């Protein structure tokens, strides 16, 4: 049976975020930006926009409210003797770049070679989301996810590959749509052993 607990928790968190009071200074900051952009924040369609924007950004940046490592605290040792590669592919995520606060939309593949314990696969995605729901650069995001797993699970190796499209490049500036960026971070056996590295990258599709 499918486990919908994580999805349900996310829905509850989003609902609670919609109830958060928005300070006047935050609403006024959004109004200032609207005016500076050439809009009238007092027109009907924009009257509630400052509150909506503020609450949306609180949700976009909810990663600041947690330590992603907490999702790796509960591990399992009864794995039937399994000690081979664990890989979660193509995990969708969104983030915002710290330079222009523009969306970063992408997917990540996360793998680790366990020692004597494993973690629930949904927790790997939660680690990714914990770091991605902050202002980011893709290179740092990749490293943070890999190092969090490495430090907390103590595996033989960790591999994280992220592909993403950056709106700060596709929708502004050079305005070049269809361009993707790929970053990777390899630790332990995936960095030191060519055979292990080839295996994990092949299974990830690279």
Textual characterization of the structure:
The chain has 206 residues and is of the alpha+beta class. 42% of the residues lie in helices and 23% in strands. It has 8 helices and 7 strands, in the order αααββββαβαβαβαα. The chain has helices spanning 5-17, 24-37, 49-60, 121-132, 138-153, 167-170, 189-192, 194-204; strands at residues 75-76, 86-97, 103-113, 118-119, 135-136, 157-166, 181-188. Helix 2 crosses helix 3 (49-60) and helix 4 (121-132) crosses helix 5 (138-153). The protein starts with a helix and ends with a helix. The model has no long low-confidence stretch (mean pLDDT 92).
Structural key phrases:
single chain, 206 residues, alpha+beta, five-stranded mixed beta sheet, two-stranded antiparallel sheet, 23% strand
Largest sheet: 5 strands, mixed
Rg over alpha carbons: 20 Å
Distance between the termini: 32 Å
Proportion of strand residues? 15-25%
Low-confidence stretches: none
Give the SSE map:
Layout: H1 5-17, H2 24-37, H3 49-60, E1 75-76, E2 86-97, E3 103-113, E4 118-119, H4 121-132, E5 135-136, H5 138-153, E6 157-166, H6 167-170, E7 181-188, H7 189-192, H8 194-204
